[in-house]
Amino acid sequence: MPWAGRVSSLLPRMTALRHRIHRAPEIAHEERQTAAAVAAWICDNTAGGLLPLAEDVGGTGLLFRVQGEGGRNTRQPVGSPGAGATVPSVLLRADLDGLPLFEKSGVPYASETPGRHHACGHDGHSSMLAAALTLLHMHRDEWGGVVYGLFQPAEETGTGALAVLADSAAMATLQQAGGVGRAFSFHNIPQRPLGQVMVRSAGTVARASTGLRVTLRGVQSHAAMPWEGNNPTLALASLASLAAGLPRRHAATAKSRGEEPPLCTLVHLNVGTRDYGISPGVGDLGVTLRACRTTTVDTMAAEIETAAQAVAQSQGLQYEAERIDYFCAAINDAASTAIVLDAATRVSRVPAVEMMQQPFSWSEDFGALASRWGGALVGIGGGLQLPVLHHETYDFPDELTPIGTELWVQVALCATGNYAGDAARWAAQTTQELGAGPAIS
Ligand SMILES: [Zn+2]
Ligand SMILES: [Zn+2]
């Protein structure tokens, strides 16, 4: 199937969609115009043949379903651990949101909304998935199975994937439509060779993380009479010290599992002012916790919360805690990784595959989808000359669009068992995987 040529013929329109989305970024949970632009583009390019299966998914997201009508879908579903899909099916996920940043890229299609910037390349992710779904629909007589396309809101805040999973109407629609076998997502990776596929087999590919803010309230007083108040500074300092030592406590366990050590970064400690006449009465401590397992992040956060409650109680302080920007770990399973590796060999323009030795340093809320359905998060190189993600000049590289689109198509075809021999190989791999015990979280 000459997919590369088909992708090329659609490329000018794909690029136009990417630029249109880039010009009008919307931040987490506000992506209504972006979703509308994607839906309209897919509708136009399929002559009205492909419409959303569900809208407002998780608030502002979109769900599509493309049914292959070729003869190959009589094959057994490719291994789908714990998912319960009734047909060979796969979910491809893209993210719709931009960032609350000012763009300084200078490109002609730069953001027209001050303080909004597609600085993470989600405009490219959405355009590539829109194109892949369109091509799969147009050539649906050549393949079998079901491909879902999920355009997810609010990746940047870690709340979008969870909102999708909490959308009971959308989940019921998915289940009625046959269920999901596996899920895949790409992220563009600057400063790596263009199109290079980066994947990590059977392990954490993006760490779990959470922000944690602890507030302690006492009583403000004159600095000359601190005994008249209740100053939380020492309590906050002791908590900061305890938090900073937590990674050491969990490092040995992580090492015994072959995982990178957890991290606790002190991000703020606010108490008092530069007024030397006042003994402060309130303060707060902020930390960011990261680990290869979601459970490790949860444990470290609970340890800080427990210690904070104890110190508050012993010193007569009021205690509040809040978790912010919570991300599950994104964990790839071996069979899904094998699907990606196979798909990459079928794409004409992928220069090499990099088996990652360490997870990405950032977090990705695709982890919540992968823990529900199994799957893989895949990095795809954007080119060596790009600035880092979230930089004020970041602009998704248009050269990556055709490569990523072709890779999406091939992942979809591989995951739904459209190539001879693959299903048996993956099924064997999946059996091994399931025999190895429950998935880590
Ligand atoms: Zn980002
Ligand atoms: Zn991103």
Please, what is the CATH homologous superfamily of the largest domain?
Zn peptidases
Bound small molecules, which ones? zinc ion
Number of domains: 2
Helix content: 25-40%
- What is Rg? 24 Å
Q: What's the level 1 CATH class of the largest domain?
A: Alpha Beta
Mean pLDDT: 91
Query: Unreliable segments (pLDDT under 50, ≥5 consecutive)?
Result: 73-83, 426-441
SSE series: HHEEEHEHHEEEEEHEEEHEEHEHEHH
Question: How would a crystallographer describe the biggest sheet?
Answer: 8 strands, mixed
Structural class: alpha/beta
Arrangement of strands in the largest sheet: 1-2-4-3-5-16-6-15
Let me know the number of strands: 16
Q: Based on the coordinates given, report the CATH architecture of the largest domain.
A: 3-Layer(aba) Sandwich
Termini, distance in Å? 38 Å
**Fraction in beta strands:** 15-25%
**What fold name stands as the CATH topology of the largest domain?**
Aminopeptidase
What global shape is seen?
A: elongated
Please count the helical segments. Answer: 11
